[in-house]
Amino acid sequence: MKEPEIKVAVVTGGGHGIGRALCRRLANDGALVVVADIDESAASVVAAEIGGVGKALDVSDEKAIVALVEKIEKAHGPIDMFISNAGVGYGDGASGAISAEGGMHPIEDRWDACWQVNVMAHVFAARAMVPRMLQRGHGHLVNTASAAGLLSQIGDSAYSATKHAAVGFAESLAIDYGDAGIVVSVVCPQAVATRMIGIEDDSESMEGGFRGNDVDGIMRPEAVADIIIDEALAGRFLILTHPQVTTYVQRKASDHDRWISGMQRFRKKLL
Ligand SMILES: NC(=O)c1ccc[n+]([C@@H]2O[C@H](COP(=O)([O-])OP(=O)(O)OC[C@H]3O[C@@H](n4cnc5c(N)ncnc54)[C@H](O)[C@@H]3O)[C@@H](O)[C@H]2O)c1
């Protein structure tokens, strides 16, 4: 039997949504998958289903990431692919981009939570993994940002700004280490049918909570996960799971001011 290309993988936020689909795909390919999530019981359920390892992890805790990497490599060997997939978004409050509070899930400071989980967690994972991967001369770092990291999401300034930062950090990683054997990929999906966009049926069924919700452009987590793994293994940096995002990015790049006017009109329409 052919050896799997990825023998050991870590997926943060692997307990639900896109992360869970990534875990299933990697396990299906023959990898030992570490399902790491702040929701420990969800991580355990997914790990049991795929024969992986479930771990409680808060990605905003650098020491916890370092400890996880050390433990896993000691017990199971080198981590070939580390996917920083966990992410949070809360929505702007009533006053828009300048709001201090969040919308759907008010917390003390949604900017701080978004910064820690959407950006610093990627930095922490890279700090833990890059020296090991450089020594081995290979490895994959896959960082989930969002189309909001290229185009901005109407109604969530903290999410948009931190996802832009995540794209920028991944670019730096690729520039600094991409020619030393570390394949860096940044994932920028548009809508995916998960709890993040209010699809509440997050049952543990293989349907991934999609429930036939065919709203324009929404993709199933399973389809998104397949594109992510295929393209990461092919060595692609920018993984655009939704083809229309390529067109939007090209339009934005060709005339930024015109793009802002278009977004203003789109926002009015949404309101
Ligand atoms: N769903 C979409 O439309 C969409 C679009 C673009 C990008 N994304 C990104 O995809 C990634 C996965 O999101 P999803 O749609 O599957 O959402 P989800 O809410 O279904 O899953 C997110 C997972 O991250 C975990 N998580 C949250 N905070 C954590 C922390 N501090 N430490 C560890 N785990 C934590 C959650 O418990 C959950 O299992 C996120 O980075 C998100 O920003 C999602």
The H/E string reads: EHEHEHEHEHHEHEHH
Backbone shape: globular
CATH C-level category: Alpha Beta
Q: Give the proportion of residues in helices.
A: 40-55%
Largest sheet: 7 strands, parallel
The spatial strand order of the largest sheet comes to 3-2-1-4-5-6-7
Structural class: alpha/beta
CATH architecture call: 3-Layer(aba) Sandwich
CATH domain fold name: Rossmann fold
Number of strands: 7
Unique ligands: nicotinamide-adenine-dinucleotide
CATH homology superfamily name: NAD(P)-binding Rossmann-like Domain
Beta-strand residue percentage: 5-15%
Q: Regions with pLDDT < 50 over 5+ consecutive residues?
A: 204-214
Helix tally?
A: 9
In total, the number of domains comes to: 1
Detailed description of the structure:
The chain is of the alpha/beta class and 271 residues long. The chain has a single domain (8-245), classed as Rossmann fold, CATH 3.40.50. It has nine helices and seven strands. The protein has helices at residues 17-28, 40-50, 62-76, 110-136, 148-151, 157-177, 221-233, 243-254, 256-270; strands spanning 8-12, 32-37, 53-56, 81-84, 139-144, 182-187, 238-239. A seven-stranded parallel sheet has the order 3-2-1-4-5-6-7, with helices on both faces. Helix 3 (62-76) runs parallel beside helix 4. The longest helix has 27 residues, at 110-136. Bound molecules: nicotinamide-adenine-dinucleotide. The site of nicotinamide-adenine-dinucleotide has 30 residues, from helix 1.
